[in-house]
Amino acid sequence: MIHAFPASWLARIAASELALPIPLGPRIGLKWILSSSTKLAWLGLNDIDVTDALSAFLSTGCVFYDFGAGAGYHSLMASRVAGPGGAVYSFESSPRHLSYLHNHIEMNRARNIRVFAMPEGGTHEWRLDTLALSRGLAPPDLVRIHAPGREVEVLRGCRALLAAAKPVVVLTVTPAANAAAERDSVHCSWLLRELGYRVTTKPGGEIVMVATP
């Protein structure tokens, strides 16, 4: 059991640059650099609500957009499910996360993942509408959005894409115990419903929204 190990031991393990196979969940066997996440990603226990939501809609041959991909925790899972006939497009702005993301793709031979380095800072260049069209990306079946504090801007920047492709959208708003986050979740829900989506919301440490066409 995880709680049987001393916290200091877990902290030392999590800070290591060592890459080990994830032991639990749908990512079991995928190699993960321990220091790439401060949470429980290396055990396969991070973002359980988001993992469950994505798992319900991922399928062989699907196209997955991972906006705010981080080190690739969800991109790697999607890559495994989608297989060689599918595609994963991972969008990330943090240089640190991008480095880990590329390493994870290489060590797991996830050849169906394509990475896009997004500008740091302002969201005016974070337009999936423009990017998908200019790069000739396949239309998405499933979109994950994780852009803390910028969720509304990101949604506004992909309205044409969502209206045309009608993918399922899984969006997180963090932290939930914050008035601004609550306001943003309401705004995001309104934007998605305006596009004809049905939205369900699961509150918690972070608000997880699942929008289906």
Overview of the structural elements:
The longest helix has 16 residues, at 179-194. The chain is globular and about 45 Å long. A seven-stranded mixed beta sheet has the order 5-4-3-6-7-9-8, with helices on both faces. It has a two-stranded antiparallel sheet with strand order 1-2. It has helices spanning 7-14, 48-55, 73-82, 95-107, 128-134, 151-156, 159-165, 179-194, and strands at residues 19-21, 31-33, 63-67, 87-92, 113-117, 142-146, 168-173, 198-202, 207-212. It has 213 residues and is α/β, with parallel strands linked by helices. The N and C termini lie far apart (40 Å).
Cα Rg: 17 Å
Class computed from helices, strands and strand pairing = alpha/beta
Overall geometry: globular
* Termini Cα gap: 40 Å
| Sequence of secondary-structure elements | HEEHEHEHEHEHHEHEE
Strand order of the largest sheet: 5-4-3-6-7-9-8
Kindly list the characteristics that best describe this protein.
8 helices; seven-stranded mixed β-sheet; globular; 9 strands; alpha/beta; about 210 residues; single chain; two-stranded antiparallel sheet
Outline:
By secondary structure, this protein is an alpha/beta fold. It has eight helices and nine strands.
